[in-house]
Structure formats: structure tokens, C-alpha cells
Amino acid sequence: MKPEFPHKDIIDPDQFSKKDLETILSTTEYLITLQKQNKTQNILKNYLMASLFFESSTRTRLSFETAMLRLGGQVISTVGFQFSSISKGETLYDTMKMIEAYADIAVIRHPVEGSSRIAASAVSIPIINAGDGAGHHPTQALLDLYTIYKEKGTIDGLKIAFIGDLKFGRTIHSLVKLLTHYDVEMVFISPIDLAIPEAYRKELKKKNIEFEETEDIKAFWDCDVAYVTRIQEERFVDKDEYERLKNSYVINKSLVLASKKNTLIMHPLPRVNELSTDVDDLPNAAYFRQARYGVDVRMALLCLCLKVELPDI
Amino acid sequence: MKPEFPHKDIIDPDQFSKKDLETILSTTEYLITLQKQNKTQNILKNYLMASLFFESSTRTRLSFETAMLRLGGQVISTVGFQFSSISKGETLYDTMKMIEAYADIAVIRHPVEGSSRIAASAVSIPIINAGDGAGHHPTQALLDLYTIYKEKGTIDGLKIAFIGDLKFGRTIHSLVKLLTHYDVEMVFISPIDLAIPEAYRKELKKKNIEFEETEDIKAFWDCDVAYVTRIQEERFVDKDEYERLKNSYVINKSLVLASKKNTLIMHPLPRVNELSTDVDDLPNAAYFRQARYGVDVRMALLCLCLKVELPDI
Amino acid sequence: MKPEFPHKDIIDPDQFSKKDLETILSTTEYLITLQKQNKTQNILKNYLMASLFFESSTRTRLSFETAMLRLGGQVISTVGFQFSSISKGETLYDTMKMIEAYADIAVIRHPVEGSSRIAASAVSIPIINAGDGAGHHPTQALLDLYTIYKEKGTIDGLKIAFIGDLKFGRTIHSLVKLLTHYDVEMVFISPIDLAIPEAYRKELKKKNIEFEETEDIKAFWDCDVAYVTRIQEERFVDKDEYERLKNSYVINKSLVLASKKNTLIMHPLPRVNELSTDVDDLPNAAYFRQARYGVDVRMALLCLCLKVELPDI
């Protein structure tokens, strides 16, 4: 079985068609079945992945490395400060030409927006963007999408709330973009100062996706999914405003239990205090399962980018 | 062959019964035989170990990673400063829930006492404590125990000296605890200010284990084993006292050759100057062999915690 | 097939006879053929390499780790600052005795000249010097030699230019030493202040190798190979002199196209501005291919030091 996938790289959520998303979701499902049958260990045998983290992101790095190893592949790895040649003034282009000589695929995390696109154009091996500064983090958005699909059995027809910092939250922006391919309704819950940017509102209107904006945290009660993110103090010019707001946007057990639709609670993690630990034991709490789905989705992306044949189920 | 082992985790030397210790020693022996027969390479195939070093300990980390790789397993690894999510305020509980999604077993080194127990209770995968602050370092104690057993052919009946900083020496405390399960005699050799704490003296008396305390370094001459540790300058309030003592506690070749029982010299390493390099070539010098036994014992612990079937000899 | 190789370690370019160099070149060729036939993946199965980088060198570390993994071997890895035991005062000798307990072969990068030789004499496992301070970096010289051989089909009869900092350039010194085993002609192009040291001129004369020295960059036009290195500002006492010279030693496309012998352009990388990116697309530009040859040559060195049998072609 070899799924059709027209991309060399994973750079940006905008690159995917609806069909691509369906392929990613179904390949993830397929790989989960293969894992249960102990059939993944030779899929990427003899393939080498370079894990290039020009800035630290332990969660993402370990998730990708786990995915590669579970597929029987191998990993060479490096984190930020270790790039001695960068400190000698080497360009990303030159670094990538070197990596191309070593690895069959590379995962790149970089503080500068757009750098993963530069990396991808420098080399013929597949490049996966694991976050580039204020830019995108497409694999996070894809695992969020898969989490919704896996936990709810569908994406179409759902009403999805986004809570917290919707202005700067990169993971939310990327997920919103992916969800525009589906028949969903969105609820944006945030302080006015942290509202979703106009560009996204425009795009939703253009695609006829229903959405509402509110400051009222309780608006998630009639949603199927609530995607919670942190409100960062450093985003506020007016610290009194932050103090006033910070406790309004804390999701705790009693709030979750009051929801009418048994709302699924998601969070990209790490959390600080915007999501109480008393939610953890509720079946609604999907955020730790999200971490596991992250490995599954990344396994699918590695296979898709490398265009390998998958074993039969 | 599947040894009986009632523990999920390795946290604390107090957790082991005499029977557990016997199982660990015999499983280590068994694995050494399997290694000679080239039969270890598939034992942990498809198992993934997370190597989580919230503080650096290269020796211990490489020992565990070697053990895992020699068993055919795979490793994801991270050291201290790299835990970017920790610096964002993530709790150890949340970090471990993430790791549980990735790995089948985790080895954890952490600066805070008790953290490995917290980690173990957070997750269903086995956790091995590789040292938690002023707390325990049980795998070091187990490899010390195995070294005595392997080199002397027995533990019962031995007279064992401990030399150096017996007050703060974590490895000595843990080893003393394990040895209380055996019929041994102990000799504690240290400056008075660095004597073994009262709690240990009490426990030894309660268990009817004979011991003596002395400042005289020569007391190891009629011991079967001498376990040497460093006297750290920073432990002394009175620096003159340190200057007076530091040279009294240096084990060198002539001292070792004067021993009446061909005393086995052990040291947890790294050493500084409390153990002269002229001892290295004596057959008594067991400390470099200890490093190799460390890998063997950790292989056994990985197998025991993961409850895997071992191949026949 | 088991090539004859009389060395345990790779420490210094001076250790090799002409026959050794021929063995290294032919074993590299052989491994490239095996790779094309997918026959390298079991050659170092069950072998473990310790990657010990007491200082950062990402390029070299990843090259060695890739080589080991492509041969089916396993890697334990550590970089500089992580050597916690070193910071506690451990000697390199003791560190290596520990590593010997873990690994079958070790690659060592260390800031102090001569340290790889100390490491090699401490242990019975093979040690490969991956650069020791102002000392040697023999694997770089060997991959440079292989690059010339591979790209030109021969080494004998070639005229080879060295451009840039010939006084302090370690890679150039090592390569010059290796080339004295061949029938070549050399052209040293540098500012007078950065001329090749007298010791090398003497050796070349002694071995009757023809060479010329010049400040004129155009002297590479009738050479078969030009090995370009950086001129470092910090080497100049007189900064005006640096300003005057720095632009004279920039290799760009028009300079390369003016060469009469289609000169092959090599560079150890990373480059800064001494080699323009407009050269990259010329077939003459060998420097990115050098990186790939680096993996091949290191695969050969690992096999040769470990004295393993190679599969038939």
C-alpha cells in the first residue's frame, strides 16, 4: 500500500488540499493498525532522519525521533547551541547541503520564520518544518486535527471553541486554517486584546464558515471541542488588565463538567495554570492522548514524505 | 526464562527484599552469559527507552544507553538544559505524561530528591531512578553489590571497609543499606566530622551487623573490600582541618600492597586524588571493571522492569 | 574480504604508509559499491561507537554517526559541556577507561593537542581522532585525499593549489602531508604573512616534491585542484593589511571559469565569504560532494579499525 501524496516537504498548513488531509488522517489510522500488528519496525529500515533543532523543543524533537525509531529508522540529532558551524557564520543553505549528504529526511526547528522553506529549497531530501519562529508548526496542527477526528469520529458537523491567546497563538492559527477544509462551526473565546486576527476572520467569511467571538469562557459549554491555550502575561501592555483577566480563562473541572456536550478538552502543552490538573482524570481530557497521536501522525508524515510502500494489514 | 520481579520501578534501595537482590544478581550473571553467546541483541527489540537527564551525569547516562542498545532496544535522549518546556513552567507530572506517550521505559536523573518517585507514580511505564539530588542512586548501589559478588564470589562472610566521606556519600549510604541483607562486617574509616550518620549506625545495630568506626586508614588492611570515596574540601568548615586530613585519606599502591587480605579496591568514580593512579595496575583495582558491571546490571534491571522473557542459555 | 590494516587507531596523518592510504581509498570505493547493493547494513551490527565531542563540531560528529549507523552499528553520543565528570576533575585517562567499558570504538574531539594519542594509549579499543586542538584532524585529510582521487580518477600527476591561510590551516597541513606520498606538484597561494610554514617546505624539498609559493590568486588557473580555506581576520596584527587582502582571496564564478584546466574547487567548510555561492552550481564545485565522501571514508575507517570482514560484492 502506497498512499498518494504530492508533496516533498511539510512546510505550511496552506500547502494541503482536503484530499491531502484525508490522506494524512487515513495513513495515520493505517499505521496505528500496523503498530498493533507489530508491522511497523521495518518500514523505514535503512532510512536516516536528521533531527535539527536550532532551538530547543524537547517535546517535538522526542516525538519525531520516537516516530522514526518506531518505524525502524535511525536518527542523528542536534540541538541549537551545538551548531558550531552556524556560530562560525555558516548559512542555513550550506548547513542543509551538508545534511543532505548524511540523511534521507530532515526535521527542522528554527527561530527564524521562513527558514524551513529555505531549507527545503536547498536540498532534494524531504524537509519537515517543526516550527519556525513566528511562522508555522504544521505537524502540531495536523496532530490536533487527527486528535479531533480520532476522539470524535468525525470533523464535519462539529462546533469547536478556541480559548486563550488567539492573537499570537501559532498552533491555533494553523489549526483554524486546516479546519476551513471541513464543515465546522468555530467559537473564539478570548480577551478582546487577544482576539483572532482580522486575516483569519476574513478567510472564514470567504469560506462561509460560521464563527462567533466572545469574551465569555462559558461559551465552550455547547461546543464539541475546546482547544485551550495559555494567556501570556508578556503579551499585555496593561498589567492590570492581565491581572483582571488571567483568572477568567482558567479551565477547571467544574467548568468542564458544566458543559452540555461533554466537550473534549485539548491543549498543545506545556500548560501552566490555564488548565487545572483536576481536569486530567475526566474522560474529556484529551491533551495527554494528543501527545501519543503526535507520534502516530509524525509516523504517517515520515512515510508519506519518503513515499515508502506500507505493509498490508 | 522470565525471572520473578515484583517491582514496576527502581526508585530506592529500601524497596528490595533479599530475594529481589538475588534475582538482580542472578539475572545479571545470566545476561553476561547470554552476551558471550551473542543472544542479547533481540531481547528488547522494539522497546524504546527515554533517557531523561534533568542534570548532567554522562557516566550514568551512557551506561544506561549502552545497556539498552546492547539489548537491541532504542533510545531517545535529552539532557538538562534542553528541557525547554520545563523552563516554561511545566511540571514533572506533565513531562512524564508526555514521555509515557513516547517510551516504554524511562530513566530519570533529577536534581530534586523524591522526583523519581513522583515520576513513577505519574505513569504506567517503568521508571528507573538514576539519581535524584540528595536522594538515592539505587542502580549505583546495585552495581556495587554485583561487583563485590562477582569479584569475591560471595557477599556473605566478607569484611567491607568504607573510606572517605561517609556522612554525605550517597553511594555509600545506598550500598550499606543493600549489604544489611547479607552476613557481612563493616569498617567505617573517615575523619570524625565525616562519620557515617547515626541513622545508619542504628539500623546496623538493629540488624545485628557488626561494624567498627575509625579514623585510621590502615584499618582496611584486614578487609576483603575497600570502598573508597572522595573527601570534598567544601564539606569542611575548618579549612585547616581539611588540609590536615586530606593526605591521610589517599589510597596508593604501597598502602594497598600492605593489606593482609589482598583487599579489593572499589571506587564509584570519578576520582580526584583520593585514589592514586599507581593502584590501577594492581589486580585488586576493581573500579574500572565496576564500570563494565554497571552496564551488565543495568541490562538486568531493564529486562526485569519490562518483564521480558529471556532466551535460553 | 578483509583489508589489511596495521593500525588500531587513527591519530595522525604521519602514521600512514602509502600502502595504508591505498587501502583506505580502495576500502572506501568498496564500501560505496556495497552501499549501492544495500549490503552495508549488517557490517557493524552489534558494534557500539562512542561519539565523544569534548568540544562542538556538529559536521564531524554527524558525519561519523551517520557512517556508523549506515553500517548497522549503534551510537552513544555526548558533547562538550555534558562531561560532568570532567568538570569534577576527572582525567581523560579515567574517562577513557569508562568508555572502554561501554563501547567497541570511540571517536574523540578534544580542544587539547595530543589528547587523542593519550586516549588511544589508555584503552584497547580503537580511537579515531576527530580533531585535537592545534593538532591533527586526520579523517578530514583522508576525505580530502579521497575527494581528489574520486573526482580526478587519480592523484599522481596532479597540480594542486592551496589557497588562503596556509600558516594556521590545520586541514591544509594534514592534506599536504598525505600528498607527499604521491607524485604531485603544489602551488601555495597566500598573503606572505600566512605562508606555509618552513617545516612543510623542508619536507617537500626532502621528498623532491615540486612546489611554488605566490600571493597571486590567479595561480590556481593552471592547477587541477584548488583547495580553498578562509583567511581569518584574527590572524592579522595589522588590520589594514587584512582589509587590503581580504578581497584578493575570494574565489568566485568568473575566477573559476577563467581557469585553464577546469580546476576542481574544494573547501573543508564551513565557508564564510572566501568562496562565493555563485560557484555552487558549477560542476567544478566539489565541496558539497566532499561532505558525502566524508561519510564514505569514515565508514571505511570504522571497518578498518575494527578489522571486520566485509561482504563480497
What would you note in describing this structure?
3 copies of one chain form a homotrimer. The first copy, chain A, folds into 2 domains: 13-136 and 294-306, Aspartate/ornithine carbamoyltransferase (Rossmann fold, 3-Layer(aba) Sandwich); 138-291, Rossmann fold (3-Layer(aba) Sandwich). Chain A has 11 helices and 9 strands. The mean pLDDT of chain A is 93. The first copy, chain A, has 313 residues and is an alpha/beta fold. Chain A has helices at residues 18-36, 58-70, 84-87, 92-102, 115-122, 138-152, 170-179, 198-206, 239-246, 253-257, 287-306, and strands at residues 48-53, 74-79, 105-110, 127-132, 159-163, 185-189, 211-214, 225-228, 264-266. Chains in contact: A-B, A-C, B-C. The interface between A and B is medium-sized, with 26 and 24 residues.
Keywords:
5-stranded parallel sheet, homotrimer, 39% helix, alpha/beta, 2 domains, 4-stranded parallel sheet, Rossmann fold, 11 helices, globular, 313 residues
**What is the structural class of chain A?**
alpha/beta
Q: What is the CATH C level class of the largest domain in chain A, in words?
A: Alpha Beta
Largest interface: A-B, 26 and 24 residues
Considering DSSP H and I runs of 4 or more, what fraction of the residues of chain A is helical?
A: 25-40%
How are helices and strands ordered from N to C of chain A? HEHEHHEHEHEHEHEEHHEH
End-to-end separation of chain A in angstroms reads 9 Å
Number of strands of chain A: 9
Number of domains of chain A: 2
Poorly predicted residue ranges of chain A: none
The rough form of chain A would be described as: globular
Mean pLDDT of chain A: 93
Q: What portion of the residues of chain A fall into strands of 2 or more residues? A: 5-15%
Gross CATH architecture of the largest domain in chain A: 3-Layer(aba) Sandwich
As a whole number of angstroms, the C-alpha radius of gyration of chain A is 20 Å
Which sequence of strands runs across the widest sheet of chain A? 7-6-5-8-9
Instruction: Describe the main β-sheet of chain A briefly.
Output: 5 strands, parallel
CATH-defined fold name of the largest domain in chain A: Rossmann fold
CATH fourth-tier homologous superfamily of the largest domain in chain A:
Aspartate/ornithine carbamoyltransferase
In terms of quaternary structure, what is this? homotrimer
Helical stretch tally of chain A: 11
